[in-house]
Amino acid sequence: MEKLTEFVSEHMSDDTTRLILDKARWPEIDMDLAVNCIESRRKLRGKVQEWYENPRLYFPARLSAEQCSSSATARYKASFAGRIGKSIADLTGGLGVDSWFFSKEMEHVLYNEMQAKLSDAASYNFRILKAGNIGISCDIAEKGNIGHILGNFRPDIIYMDPARRGESGKKVFLIEECTPDVLTLRDEIFSYSRHILLKLSPMADISMACERLGTTCREVHVVASGGECKELLIWMDREWDGEYSITAIELPSAYPATDGSGFTFMPSEEKTCMAAAASPEDIRSSSFLFEPGKAMMKAGCFNLMGRRFEAGKIGRSTHYYISSSEDKALAMKDFGKVFRIIRTDPLDKKSMKNLGKEFPNADVSARNIPMTSEILAKKLGCGPGNGIHIFGLRSDTEGNILITAERI
Questions:
Q1: For 126-142, what is the mean pLDDT?
Q2: Which runs of consecutive H residues, i.e. helices, occur in 31-176?
Q3: CA atoms within 13 Å, Cβ hemisphere of 252
Q4: What average pLDDT does the chain have?
Q5: Which of 389, 86, 23, 224 is nearest to 7 (CA)?
Q6: Per CATH, is 69-260 categorized as 3.40.50.150?
Q7: Mapping DSSP to helix (H, G, I), strand (E, B) and coil, where does residue 374 land?
Q8: Beta strand 108-112 with 87-90: parallel, antiparallel or unpaired?
Q9: CA end-to-end span of the chain, whole Å?
Q10: Among residues 165, 222, 338, 401, which one has the fewest Cβ atoms lying within 10 Å of its Cβ?
Q11: Looking at the domain 270-407, which fold is it?
């Protein structure tokens, strides 16, 4: 292993295809494993920086490094699980990133992975990382086998991140198409643990997933990081039989990260809430523009956002908000982007011509108007921005408008 570690460190910037072709030069090196380690480490850079910086770890499968959680999302999951219980069994261990972060918050962790090469690598890596509270299992999470995986261990929580690729390698999104099938295993798992923590694709429909999983769904967390919606976390509680809550969380970055404040609401609240519509006077005089982040958009709290922040929604289908309160605007920064409005104009030829001359360098976004962002930028004659952003938006009261703003 020492020779492999040295080889990987020395060849991190090399062309891996060329290394495979020239593998006869290094007969003492398992070149397939070395290339997997090199390419995996590249994927972990900035994603799981703690592991990238440790040259003694090894990674036998590139796909696992690509699919694993980032430090930011894994840390959030671990913090989330830590308030539910003190022990957890990860039935879909993969590369082991989630289990490692769980071990920092929980007293006892069981890592289980059905692929022996991944399980062996995780066992080795956990020893290097001095994660002594993680037990190892290599078995298939399938109906009738959960008790065999757990043995005498009765965790407070059982965690699953089902594989979202079918046998052909094509991505799948329905719960029953993922492996393992949580719908099939749910009752059996609940016989061993009160709590299930489930990670789903960010593409999954929240209401449909919770309807399929049943009334034990207690909380849904929509997690975004680095400007992308990364995952849905669903906490299922065997003793819960009520409405679930939704929390949208915008983590600051992939690495490092802190647990920010979430925006939590009940679906029934959003359903019965009327949006605070922006009046013509609001649109002409407001000082701040709010663009919701990816988690907020996925969570679908479009009406509550405006009500809670006392911000006017520009249009029924235009999910942008305006405010004259600096305090309210700054409070919204945890949940998306906030801009200071420079000017507001009607979207017409005269305005586009004038704005293009005044702001030749500006980012451009078109939302809910009959043209794309690229076409609007071309009509404005704007190149890449220098902190200025021009929004083409549809207002229910003012029609199509242009808002020129600078991000705070």
A1: 97
A2: 31-44, 49-52, 62-67, 71-82, 97-105, 116-128, 146-150
A3: 7
A4: 93
A5: 23
A6: yes
A7: helix
A8: parallel
A9: 50
A10: 165
A11: VC0802-like (3.30.2130)
